Amino acid sequence: MRPYLFLFFVFFQSCFLYAQESMTSNSDSLKEFRKIALAERRSYNKKRCSEDSIRAVRDSEIQHKYYINIAAPSGDKFLPAEELKMILQKHNIIWGGEWMGSDIGGYSGECYYSLMTELTEKKLGKDFIDELVKKSVALYVQKHPGKIFDYDEHSEWTYKKGSLSYTDDNDQLNKDFFSHFIYPEGYENYNSSVQKYRSSTLVTLILDTKGIVLKNQFSHHIFHDHNLKYIPYFEKEIKKFIKYTKFEPVKYGGYPVKGEISFSIYYK
């Protein structure tokens, strides 16, 4: 029986090696196919972009068009689109609408849309176009006085002209808060052997068009049970900070609006 077992083993090993070689060959073929497909896609995109850029330059000689870009794959629509269309028409500018690029490497006409917008801004002045956009937001706000703008890609809120960190305390807002904050006696600092995460408080504010706080809300994430009793103290100190802080208003399309903001206070 042993010779047969030996032959069976040799046969099995040969099949296994053949399967491995076949899989490697298929994998290499797939990689090569993807490489060729990517090169062809890039070549196609480059050709289309070149054609659309030439068309944009030609069209810009006889008309002005303006587009707004939104992020792929599901960007936020520009809310005052109808108002902007009406305002642009008064200045003989065609509202092209919103355009979205491809997040999978496809071509969606972005070269035409972006260049056409750039040429319009260059000929008429970017500041002039920006003012028209602001007017459209102002008109939208007049029609929707109760609208509270939350965060989307067309809105902007900064603290002392800077952006915030939403992962740690290394931003100006946290630095300002803790410059006057005293931890209560008995507070236990973050310990990685006891806590999985650092404790924090998420602060949500509704600001009016001048940055005045209309409403506040707190969501506490205290990951050390011993420190839960200090939540009222944290809230008192945060409210004090809010009271004496001058906040910038939320801006939508560059225009100050009533809006909702949020930031986190990270405890040690």
UniProtKB/TrEMBL annotation:
What superkingdom does the record give? Bacteria
Recite the UniProt keywords alphabetically.
Answer: Signal
Q: Does the keyword Signal apply?
A: yes
Span of the secretion signal?
A: 1-19
Record-given protein name: TonB C-terminal domain-containing protein
